[in-house]
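User: Earlier you gave me the apo prediction for this protein. Now I'd like the version with coenzyme A bound, so I can compare the two side by side. Same sequence as before, with the ligand SMILES added.
Assistant: Got it. Here's the input I'm using:
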Amino acid sequence: MTYQDNPDNLTPDQLQGFFQGWPNPPSPETHLKLLKNSDHVFIALDNNQVVGFITAITDHTLCAYIPLLEVLPSHQKQHIGKELMQRMLKKLEDLYMVDLVCDPVRVGFYASFGLKPLTALGRRNYERQSGE
Ligand SMILES: CC(C)(COP(=O)(O)OP(=O)(O)OC[C@H]1O[C@@H](n2cnc3c(N)ncnc32)[C@H](O)[C@@H]1OP(=O)(O)O)[C@@H](O)C(=O)NCCC(=O)NCCS
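And here is the structure of the complex with coenzyme A:
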């Protein structure tokens, strides 16, 4: 397993199988676009295929948000998600606030990094879920 902190050398064919369970998922091309447009990313590669990624957007002053973290089903439970989270939290360690939103089933995973439950509100426009 190798990890890298930028997507510049990636191609869409290395980004297969993500957004599991999304009804209207982004294409690999759109996935690469969102990686390039994020302020920070970490990417896990196995045999030159991306098997996990995490993104963050930030004002570089006080605040950051972690919108996306995913490890391919074939590579879950091998501490890749943990490694990606640890690298991103280290990158963001000087900021006042780091937020993310997750399903109740993931609260235990994120709490293991010291994150505390907060109240979140949000909006989803499923017609725009693919980003295209
Ligand atoms: C969530 C996800 C990224 C975790 O990645 P992963 O590589 O399978 O997780 P890891 O192997 O790094 O797990 C790290 C630790 O967290 C623990 N953990 C995982 N999920 C947990 C949960 N719901 N509650 C408590 N602990 C959990 C693991 O048991 C492991 O513990 P250990 O260090 O004692 O062995 C992965 O399951 C995934 O991509 N899921 C689908 C997409 C998703 O839900 N993304 C998050 C959106 S908010």
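For your comparison, keep in mind: DSSP finds three helices and six strands in the chain.
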